[in-house]
Write a structure and sequence with these properties.
The complex is a heterodimer of chains A (436) and B (325). With 436 residues, chain A is an alpha/beta fold. Chain A contains 20 helices and 10 strands. Chain A folds into 2 domains: 171 residues, D-Maltodextrin-Binding Protein, domain 2 (3-Layer(aba) Sandwich), CATH 3.40.190; 201 residues, Periplasmic binding protein-like II (D-Maltodextrin-Binding Protein, domain 2), CATH 3.40.190. The longest helix of chain A is centred in the first third of the chain and has 20 residues. In chain B, helix 1 runs parallel beside helix 10 and helix 8 runs antiparallel to helix 11. Classes of the chains: A alpha/beta (436), B mainly alpha (325).
């Protein structure tokens, strides 16, 4: 991409600063000659990836990336930390030092699409249709990325939120695993008597599980923050009912009174220390907390008072940027990388659900009954943050990590509110920040 | 000895005069002209030597300031400037209850952080001036809260107070004092964050005051003792005035540290529960990077900076006043 501008713009200054700052870094790396170009006609594709699991995953991803050779190009790999990742991407894109292809936040592609920085993946989708990979996608995982102008990204894994339970605590309390909200309440009371937590969650510093559990319960009741048309619909009856139920869990002490301040580490410790008996968490939570004894089990989806079932899914995706040495090379890299993804599951490095049927059938993945349960029971009923609608968009980034949802969750977990007031505050908080 | 004699002795001591002493004689008139020429020449040299640094500083600080000014008056994002909205972002921020709640917490956090750490630092600095066994080791140990990375200390504090089974809530329970939820109760969380700040900051104050105390001539105290001053009079009328300059400087620095402190709060509570520990800097961060509302977020940062400048100017005036005295 060439620029005919001769004036010294602010963007130019930022670029110059970034370039100047990168000189000593490149020198320090040694042998790190031009990252763009790299001696091949298609240039070198810069692929930025996030720490999705353990460092071993990134090591394996790096190996896969560096194994790419196609469309007269190569690819290099860089890990971007989650802390301030949006700022990292924004600064790099502004200074034209950003990636050609990247993973990233769930709604990042939509945010950068609004700013004209995303290269649409329509040609790539056509290629995937031709080579058969498109048909290998699990049902409904690609379409959420289609906008009026084209596909902004392609999915590569599904980050699911599902209900987990600890079998031994239920046995100790002498109650069955909940099948609906009524039995969840009853089980919670029985679990409390043995000192266990009947609905484990947390909304402390950096912990989003609490926020996600709130939305999950709304979806579980057939509700959601948006209408089917994508309009804000916080105050619907199903959401009010779900919030009232959550407040009932708080008032009965079934949700830990200190949960509002629990970080991810605090919550994981509660599961590991056999205090948490039931609650929403990520897939492969057992591996994450270090207890794969079989005592931590994925529960079947519970039914809301109207019989609805539902879970929450974040379709994580890979996006391409307009700032690339070659769009053809970006697409060739992505076709290659998607084709290699199975290696990550084969090596049991991924703690999320695959988007390809062929990976979901791998013995390394399917040998875990919890994985099978998630694919069979949770994935078909899971909805995104866009629920009750199904179209992903940039506004969901504001809902996902924004202050309004966090404030709502913390208000509920402290129990010092009523459902309608909390939802009204949530709605008004969202209205002030959501773009029309 | 009468109190008049004691107070005149203390006044002389503060001016650095030994009993019966006097200041040196006035300069000879013939030297004045040469001295003023020399002073002018030195000023010119200083100006040219400083000029490159000043230009660099203006560039480094001026560009982001202008860019921030542009962002605060537009409705854009981190990539695009957006359309000009004038003072709309400032008006929105100033009419937001969240801003005033954060401002109130920032004020409390700063007052407790500055004066709490100063009092603890002063106490320990005075203690360390006396001969105590293993004083050097003690001093190094006391520096640890300042030296240890905040990520580590916040994790340690979280471990101490976060859950009902954490060490400190367990101790309270064992003493029959209930089970306080230090980070889950909004009021207790605010208090905990402030105590954490004092704990992290007192070593800095201790070092500043220790350095100031080391420069105080011990003969001043001997003179005051001879004039009959009590320990309290020596502390309040000699020690405090003589370390006033360092004290004001440390207050300015600590005020800036507290107002701009992001990690202490964010790592321990994330600004919660329910915004109980959200300071202005945390609010600015969350507005820009979580709500993606760049204009209002930068407007908050601007207002913070202006407030800090005013506070710093006021305290600097106090320093100059104390120097003159």
């Amino acid at each position: 991409m060439t620029s005919t501008r001769t004036t010294f713009s602010r963007r130019g200054f930022l670029g110059l600063t970034a370039a100047a700052a990168s000189v000593p870094l490149l020198a320090a790396c040694g042998g790190g000659s031009a990252s763009q170009g790299g001696g091949s006609a298609g240039g070198t594709i810069k692929f930025w990836d996030m720490p999705w699991a353990t460092p071993a995953l990134n090591d394996a991803s790096r190996k896969l990336t560096e194994g790419f050779s196609g469309a007269n190009s190569k690819a290099n790999y860089q890990i971007i930390q989650w802390n301030n990742f949006y700022q990292t991407f924004s600064s790099a894109i502004a200074s034209k030092t950003g990636p050609a292809v990247s993973t990233g936040g769930g709604f990042q592609a939509f945010q950068f699409e609004q700013q004209g920085q995303i290269a649409y993946a329509d040609n790539l989708i056509e290629t995937l249709k031709k080579n058969g990979m498109y048909d290998d996608f699990l049902p409904g995982v690609v379409e959420p990325f289609k906008t009026d102008k084209g596909y902004v990204a392609v999915p590569w894994h599904l980050s699911m939120r599902v209900m987990w339970y600890r079998k031994s605590l239920f046995e100790q309390a002498g109650v069955d695993v909940p099948k609906d909200w009524a039995t969840l309440l009853e089980a919670g009371k029985a679990l409390k008597k043995i000192g266990a937590v009947g609905f484990a969650t947390g909304a402390g510093a950096g912990n989003n599980i609490g926020n996600q559990a709130m939305i999950m319960m709304m979806i579980n009741n057939g509700g959601g923050v948006f209408s089917k048309d994508g309009e804000l619909d916080v105050m619907n009856d199903r959401n009010v009912e779900a919030t009232e139920f959550l407040l009932e869990l708080v008032s009965n002490g079934i949700i830990d009174p200190a949960a509002v301040s629990y970080t991810s580490a605090n919550l994981d410790a509660q599961w590991k220390d056999k205090k948490a008996a039931f609650g929403a968490h990520v897939s492969q939570m057992d591996t994450r907390v270090g207890d794969t004894s079989g005592d931590l089990i994925v529960a079947s989806p519970i039914a809301g008072p109207h019989g609805d079932k539902g879970g929450l899914v974040f379709p994580n995706n890979i996006m391409m940027y307009t700032n690339t040495p070659s769009q053809e090379a970006s697409e060739a890299f992505l076709v290659y990388y998607l084709g290699q993804l199975k290696e990550l599951w084969k090596q049991k490095l991924m703690n999320a659900l695959p988007v390809f049927k062929s990976i979901a059938e791998l013995p390394e993945f399917a040998s875990d009954p919890n994985n099978v349960k998630i694919v069979r029971e949770w994935q078909p009923i899971a909805k995104t943050l866009a629920a009750q609608g199904d179209k992903l968009n940039a506004n969901l980034a504001v809902l996902d990590g924004g202050q309004a949802l966090n404030q709502f969750t913390q208000t509920i977990l402290t129990g010092k509110t009523d459902a309608k007031s909390a939802l009204q505050a949530f709605e008004s908080g969202l209205k002030t920040v959501l773009k029309k | 000895m009468s109190s008049t004699t004691a107070s005149s002795g203390l006044a002389r001591a503060r001016r650095g005069l030994a009993p019966g002493g006097a200041r040196g004689g006035s300069p000879k008139p013939g030297n004045l002209n040469r001295k003023s020429k020399l002073r002018a020449q030195t000023s010119r040299t200083f100006f040219w030597l400083l000029l490159p640094s000043v230009i660099l500083l203006v560039l480094i600080h001026g560009y982001p300031l202008i860019e921030a000014g542009v962002q605060a008056t537009h409705d854009g994002n981190l990539l695009q400037t957006g359309k000009f909205v004038g003072g709309e972002n400032f008006a929105a921020v100033l009419s937001s209850p969240a801003f005033w709640k954060a401002a109130q917490f920032t004020l409390m956090f700063t007052i407790v952080g500055v004066f709490g750490s100063w009092l603890v630092g002063l106490g320990l600095a005075l203690l360390l001036r006396t001969r105590i066994p293993a004083g050097g080791t003690f001093k190094v140990l006391l520096l640890l809260p300042w030296v240890v990375p905040i990520v580590v200390s916040s994790t340690a504090w979280n471990w101490l107070v976060a859950t009902p089974d954490s060490l400190i809530p367990s101790l309270f329970r064992n003493f029959g004092l209930g089970t306080p939820l230090f980070l889950a109760d909004p009021n207790l969380a605010a208090v905990t964050v402030m105590i954490f700040k004092v704990w992290v900051s007192f070593p800095f104050m201790m070092m500043m005051i220790s350095a100031a105390l080391a420069s105080v001539d011990t003969t001043v105290y001997e003179a005051a003792s001879m004039d009959g001053a009590t320990r309290w009079q020596q502390f309040s009328q000699i020690t405090l005035p003589l370390i006033a300059r360092s004290t004001y400087i440390s207050w300015i620095l600590m005020t800036i540290f507290c107002v701009n402190d992001f990690p202490t709060i964010y790592l321990l509570t994330g600004g919660g529960p329910v915004n109980a520990t959200t300071s202005l800097v945390v609010l600015a961060y969350r507005t820009v990077f979580q709500d993606f509302a760049t204009g209002p977020g930068v407007a908050i940062a601007f207002l913070m900076t202006m407030t800090l400048v005013v506070i710093s100017v006021l305290l600097y005036r106090q320093i100059r006043k104390s120097s003159v005295e």
